[in-house]
Write a structure and sequence with these properties.
The structure is a homodimer. By secondary structure, chain A is mainly α. The first copy, chain A, has 2 domains: 46 residues, Arc Repressor Mutant, subunit A; 130 residues, Tetracycline Repressor, domain 2 (Orthogonal Bundle), CATH 1.10.357.10. In chain A, 72% of the residues lie in helices and 0% in strands. The longest helix of chain A has 22 residues. Chain A is elongated. Chains A and B meet through α8, α10 and α11 of A and α8, α10 and α11 of B. Chain A binds a DNA duplex through α1 and α3.
DNA sequence: TACATTATCAAACACTTTGTTCTGTATTTA
DNA sequence: TAAATACAGAACAAAGTGTTTGATAATGTA
């Protein structure tokens, strides 16, 4: 790939991320982005169709690292400790997110945060079902999935935007305490005939 | 209040709500709203500053009914059954929401849904702390509050947008099962010195 | 009923933002 | 070096926003 393209793409990403920390996504104009990135107008539109697709591209770039396949292989998937695997994967994801926290901080602020959360949940909805199958539930399966996905993504938002002092392990423990504990530790008899 | 104003306001609300069921909030123009509502351009701007403030006004109108004070008095606040009061209040709120489900359905679809959720959470963050004080927690208090607020608001979104067949009691039971159960039923000793 | 008030409408307006198209220049790759 | 390609900068039409104007109609009140 042409080095000019890489530099331009990175310049736009960086400018956009830094603008997001100061302004609402909806109030940022393309003109501001290209001024901050110091690129020409036609150059911006050669890279991205719209401001929204720029945001989507940034999210996709991050998810490419966060949901890389290596963690699936690390997982021993030990059924005798149901929930343990899940917490391990959670922690893994949190570490990847922490590596991108500079960009995430901008993405997660104000109205762009909701868009990021939407894409994030899409990925989680594909990743989590294998862990959730072993949970106890007296609730519809898709309610449970939605609950776990939303709880985790909101945990991430809480962490990145307002409580960066905690470590991935601590955050995973909070999440496990509020969401996973009951699902795995209680007897499964309630949900069986 | 002038009857003409009431009619215009309602016409705009109705038109906007019906447009939201078909289109993204961001893609709806003021022109479309006034065409659908069959009112003049200057009339629209006499009622609302911007499209965003129209959305906010609709949300506020709904919350006025949902978070009315009467439910605070109904509550017996029975400490011997911690969690029971909370589930009662939850059910109460769900009934109020069900009364507005026609407007809610539009508001909660697509990108306007995130804006509604933002306002909704603000109200919940003021309402829930009195119930949460009696919960067990080994997690930071504001993490727990955020968790309960987000879990409940996402439960509402799940219900209104995709699973209207359930009753308020059923939804409250799902929520209690996933969020309240562990907080109230387990011993508090863990969180005490 | 008559009157003053006020909400409405339609049209025109300046302004901002968007996304496209052009030309000439600089950089990369082969 | 030569061809291909990415770039800057400017100009452009199109769409949308929010305001202003003056005429008309509905409302509440004396």
């Amino acid at each position: 790939m042409d080095r000019r393209q890489q530099k331009t793409r990175q310049a736009i990403f960086y400018a956009f991320s830094s603008l997001l920390e100061r302004k609402n996504f909806n109030n940022i104009t393309v003109q501001e982005i290209i001024d901050e990135a110091n690129v020409g107008r036609s150059t911006f539109y050669a890279h991205f169709e719209t401001k929204d697709s720029l945001l989507k591209a940034m999210c996709t770039d991050i998810f490419l690292h966060v949901f890389s396949d290596d963690l699936k292989q690390e997982s021993s998937h030990d059924f005798s400790h149901a929930g343990h695997d899940f917490q391990k994967e959670i922690t893994h994801i949190l570490y990847h997110l922490q590596d991108n926290r500079k960009n995430l901080k901008g993405l997660l602020s104000c109205d762009s945060g909701d868009i990021f959360m939407g894409y994030f949940k899409e990925y989680l909805e594909q990743t989590f079902p294998i862990y959730i199958r072993e949970m106890n539930y007296n609730v519809p399966a898709d309610y449970l999935l939605n609950h776990v996905v939303c709880s985790f993504s909101e945990t991430v938002r809480w962490w990145i935007t307002r409580h960066e002092q905690y470590t991935p392990e601590q955050i995973a423990a909070f999440f496990a305490q509020c969401v996973l504990k009951q699902c795995f530790t209680e007897s499964k008899s309630h949900s069986l005939p």
